[in-house]
Write a structure and sequence with these properties.
The protein is an all-beta fold. Helices cover 0% and strands 52% of the residues.
Length: 280
């Protein structure tokens, strides 16, 4: 799906199967995933953004970027509902009654989504990467090199440090139902853990550096790789279900739709690609 004039930093699916992309050109686009037709485009007025998170009900989107604050958008009307203070919000997530932003200055901030009031602030990772469990109680952020920190968002305290990777860990994800978590490293290793991000369940040797992860239904996991590939895994069996290659640059973001039949990947090459996942 061409249409952006700069890198695509964020992708996702709405509950009805439409795809959403966010580009560093300042546009959020909504697409028919089956035909590639662009159904709507929202001009955020902010260049050099591209981070994206979608609310579970599919009505709102969070955007962020290198030199712009995070903003909350109504996807139906295109209206900006709220802006959140601070620049360079590269990590974005919705939690239960929360908006969470990870910043390049190393801060992790929890916001009231409606008022834009900060609720709590943590010292986190300068990468800005963050994954929040759907209930809003736990978060994962990159720690010191090769580790991941788990934070209790209700108390503001670190819970544990996850080890096991041999390089940086930019890929972080919780399952949609909160029952599992995953960390992925540029060393090519993905580690699956339980929903507390504590007990290891499985290791996946992907064969290429992992930059981004996203769970789908039924234990599916998409991994976006630094070499431009995307792989789809069954985390219950550890089986690789598919491997796709179509980007001319590294994959920046991935998502799986609510049916588990399609995946989408975004890249710095300015495109997003929708892939059909083979039947299980």
């Amino acid at each position: 799906m061409p249409g952006h004039t700069d890198g695509v930093g964020g992708v996702g699916f709405l509950p009805d199967g439409r795809a959403v992309t966010a580009g560093a050109d300042g546009w959020i686009s909504i697409w028919d995933a089956a035909t590639g037709a662009r159904l709507r485009a929202i001009d955020t007025g902010a260049l050099e953004f591209g981070a994206l998170a979608l609310s579970p009900d599919g009505t709102r989107a969070l955007s962020g970027g290198w030199r712009v604050p995070a903003a909350l958008w109504n996807l139906q009307s295109g209206e900006c509902l709220q802006r959140y203070g601070g620049q360079s919000a590269r990590g974005l997530a919705f939690g239960a009654g929360l908006v969470v932003t990870g910043h390049l200055d190393g801060r992790l901030i929890l916001w009231d989504p409606e008022t834009g009031t900060p609720q709590r602030e943590f010292t986190a990772s300068p990468s800005g990467a963050v994954a929040v469990r759907p209930d809003g109680k736990l978060a994962m952020i990159p720690g010191a090199p090769k580790t991941v920190k788990v934070l209790d968002l209700t108390t503001g305290r670190p819970v544990r440090t996850l080890e096991g990777h041999g390089d940086a860990v930019p890929g972080l994800a919780f399952a949609p139902d909160g029952s599992a978590s995953a960390t992925g490293s540029t060393d090519g290793l993905v580690i699956i853990r339980d929903g507390e991000a504590e007990h290891e369940r499985r290791r996946l040797e992907t064969g290429a550096g992992v930059r981004t992860l996203s769970f789908g239904p039924k234990g599916l996991l998409a991994a976006g790789h630094t070499n431009g590939a995307i792989t789809i895994w069954d985390t219950e069996s550890g089986k690789k279900l598919a491997s796709f290659r179509g980007h001319q640059g590294g994959v920046t973001s991935v998502a799986i739709d609510s049916t588990g039949r399609r995946a989408i990947s975004g890249s710095g090459d300015t495109t997003a690609i929708v892939w059909e996942i083979p039947a299980q």
